[in-house]
TrEMBL record:
It holds the Pfam family DUF1328. The lineage of its organism: Archaea, Methanobacteriati, Methanobacteriota, Stenosarchaea group, Halobacteria. HAMAP family: UPF0391 (MF_01361). InterPro entries: DUF1328. It comes from Halorientalis brevis. This is UPF0391 membrane protein ACFR9U_18085.
Length: 50
C-alpha cells in the first residue's frame, strides 16, 4: 500500500510540473489517503495481540 502512495505522489509531482493541475491534485489526494490508511493499519498491526 505504501508503494501505491509513493507512486501517486510521484505522479502528482510529474503532473504538477507538466501543468496538469487537476490530475496532480487528484493524485495527491489519493496518495494522502493511502498514506493515512497505511499508518492506521501499521499501528493496528503493532497494537493488536496475536
Amino acid at each position: 500500500m505504501l508503494e501505491l502512495a509513493i507512486g501517486f505522489f510521484i505522479l502528482a509531482l510529474v503532473a504538477g510540473v507538466l501543468g496538469a493541475g487537476g490530475v496532480a491534485g487528484l493524485s495527491m489526494d489519493i496518495a494522502k489517503w493511502l498514506v493515512v490508511a497505511f499508518v492506521v493499519l501499521a499501528i493496528l498491526s503493532l497494537v493488536w495481540p496475536g
